[in-house]
Fold this sequence. Notes:
- This protein has about 140 residues and is mainly α.
- The protein is built from 4 helices and 2 strands, in the order ααββαα.
- The chain has a two-stranded antiparallel sheet.
- The relative contact order is 0.13.
Amino acid sequence: MKLARLSVFLALPLMFGCPTATAPTPPLAPGNGYINIYDQQMAQILSGARTFYNTVQCETQTLNWSQAAQQCIADPAITQPMILSATEKAAFRDFMASLNAAETLHLAYHNGTGTTQAAAQNAVNTVQLKQAALPALAVIK
């Protein structure tokens, strides 16, 4: 009896067949205003890098960057300015220069005026590398 039930249970998938194969999920469409997903990803990376840059700039003045106000604002939680060493300042300036260059190239790519996706992506990759290589700046000294 148990053997009969087991054989019926094992035969069920054969009677109903296998599910039909489905196509892979297509990539996400770019958000509104972007020319493609790469344009959107580069814009998001550069936006994050710019926010990081602005935050450090504000904290060296004992302020905090407000994304909503797009400016430095007073913050009672920040009681001392962030002080950068000469090495940190040099690395931060280098990061800023690469960020400015990448934003220019990305906008040219986004607007279709004079640069390729590869050139814009290389500039964005440079920003990411330089930001990752920065000393731990988020520590108040």
